[in-house]
Amino acid sequence: MVHNKEFDIIIIGAGAAGMMCAHIAASKHKKVLLLDHSSRLAEKIRISGGGRCNFTNVNTNPECYLSQNKHFATSALSRYTPFHFTEILDKYNIGYHEKTLGQLFCNEKSQAIIDLLDQLCQENNVTRLMETSIISLDKINGRFKLETNRGIFNSETLVVACGGLSIPQIGASGFGYQIAKQFGLKIIDTRPALVPLTLNQETLASFSPLSGISFDSITSIGKVSFRENSLFTHRGLSGPAILQISSYWQHGESIKINLLPDKAIKSEILDNRSSNKLLRNFLHDFFSERLTERICELLGINRQLSQLSNKDIDKITSFIHNFEILPNGSEGYKKAEVTKGGVDTKFLDSKSMMAKNIDGLYFIGEVVDVTGWLGGYNFQWAWSSAHAAATSI
Ligand code: FDA
C-alpha cells in the first residue's frame, strides 16, 4: 500500500532501462516510483541470452545500432559504457565471461542481474509497484498525473521505459508509443527485428531436408554483412547471422549468403582440376552430408572435377559464395528479440532523453528508435539511455 502518492519521478516499466534509471535517480535523493503492469520483474532479462543474459558487448559503438538518426545514441553510449556496467557486477561479485565477438554473459542465471538491479533500487528507496495498470495519464499544472488501478499518482517527471512490442506473451505493449503520440511526438514505423525469417512453401519444400542444420556463413544485404552461423528451420531461416541481417531486411528483398566464408571454392576446384573425385565427394570436405547433397541437387551438377567446364565452376562458385534467397516474411513479434523503430529521436534530446517539446517527459530503452545488433547491444542501450536520463533529471 502506497500512502504518499506524490513523487519526484514516476518510471513506467520495471524492465532493464526502468530499473537502471530508478536506482540512479533515487541515489540522488529523488523520490522515485517504478511501476509495471506485469506481475514479474524484468522478464526479458530473465529469458535473455538463453537464460544467462548477454548483458553487454565490449565492442559497443554507435555503428552497432540502427536508427533514423545514426548519431543519436553516441552521447549516451559514450557516457555509460560496458565497463561502467561490469564495474557494478565486479563490485557485487557477479561473475561473467566473454563468449564470442565481445559478448559478455553471466556465469550464473540471468536472475543475478535482476536481483542486483532490484537490490540497488531497494538500497536507494525506490518504491516499486507491480501489477499496476495505467488507466489514464495527463500533464496538469506542470505535473504528470497517472490514474491507475492502485490509485492516482503524480510527479514532476515521467520516464517512459515500456520497451517495445516483441514477446507480447510476457507483457510487451505499445503503451510507450501511445504516450509519445499523446504528447505530440512522432513514431518511426515499428517492425520485428532480430527475428527468424520465413520462406514460401515452394522454397521451404526445397530446403526442408536441411531443417536443423547450422553452418558458418556471411549473410548480407547491400553493404551490410554479418559473419556468424545460419540455420535452416522448418519455417525458414534462423541463427545469429540471419537474426542480424533480419533487422536490415525489407519485404521483397533477397538475402545473399556466403556458405563458405573461409575458403574460395573456385581456387579449391582449380587446385584439384585433374581429380576424378565426384563433385559431391569433393564438396563433402567443406559441408555436412545433407548440405552437400542439397547443394549438388540444386546445382544439378555431379560430375568428376576433371570434367567440370568453366561454366560449371562459375555456377558452383556463385552458388556457394553468393547464394541468394528470398524470404517472404518474418516470424513476427512473437519470436523477435527487439522492435525496430519507435519514438522518433528527432523529438528527444540525445544527452538527456527528454522530449524537446514537453518538460519532464523522458523516453529510454527499446521504446526509442534505437535498435542494437544481436550480442548484448540492446541491453547496453537500455543501461546507457537510462543513465543519461537519470543523471540529467
Ligand atoms: P523491457 O522490455 O526490458 O521492459 C519494459 C517493461 O515495461 C516490462 O517490464 C513491461 O512489463 C513493462 N510494460 C510494458 N507495457 C506496460 C504498460 N502498459 N504499463 C506498465 N508497464 C508496462 N538484448 C541483449 O542485449 N542481450 C540479450 O541476450 C538479449 N536477449 C533477448 C532474448 C529475448 C528472447 C528477447 C525477447 C529479447 C532479448 N534482448 C536481448 C533484448 C532486450 O531484452 C531488450 O532490448 C531490453 O529488455 C529492453 O529493455 P527495456 O527496459 O527498454 O524494455
Describe the structure.
The chain is α+β, with helices and mostly antiparallel strands. The chain folds into two domains: 6-192 and 338-392, FAD/NAD(P)-binding domain, CATH 3.50.50.60; 197-330, Translation factors (Elongation Factor Tu (Ef-tu), domain 3). Helices cover 30% and strands 25% of the residues. It is built from 13 helices and 21 strands. The two termini are 26 Å apart. It binds dihydroflavine-adenine dinucleotide (FDA). The site of dihydroflavine-adenine dinucleotide has 35 residues, from helix 1, helix 2 and helix 13. Pfam families: HI0933_like, HI0933_like_1st. Keywords: FAD, Flavoprotein, Membrane, Transmembrane, Transmembrane helix.
Layout of helices and strands:
Elements: E1 6-12, H1 16-26, E2 32-35, H2 43-47, E3 54-57, E4 65-66, H3 74-79, H4 82-91, E5 96-98, E6 103-106, H5 111-123, E7 127-129, E8 134-140, E9 143-148, E10 151-160, H6 175-182, E11 187-193, E12 197-198, H7 201-207, E13 214-221, E14 224-232, E15 236-238, H8 240-246, E16 255-258, H9 265-271, H10 279-283, H11 289-299, H12 310-321, E17 323-325, E18 329-330, E19 338-343, E20 361-363, E21 371-372, H13 377-392
Parallel strand pairs: 1-2, 1-10, 2-7, 10-20
Antiparallel strand pairs: 3-6, 4-21, 5-6, 8-9, 9-10, 11-19, 12-15, 12-18, 13-14, 13-16, 14-15, 16-17
Helix pairs in contact: 1-5, 1-13
The structure holds dihydroflavine-adenine dinucleotide (FDA).
Dihydroflavine-adenine dinucleotide (FDA) binds near residues 15, 16 and 161.
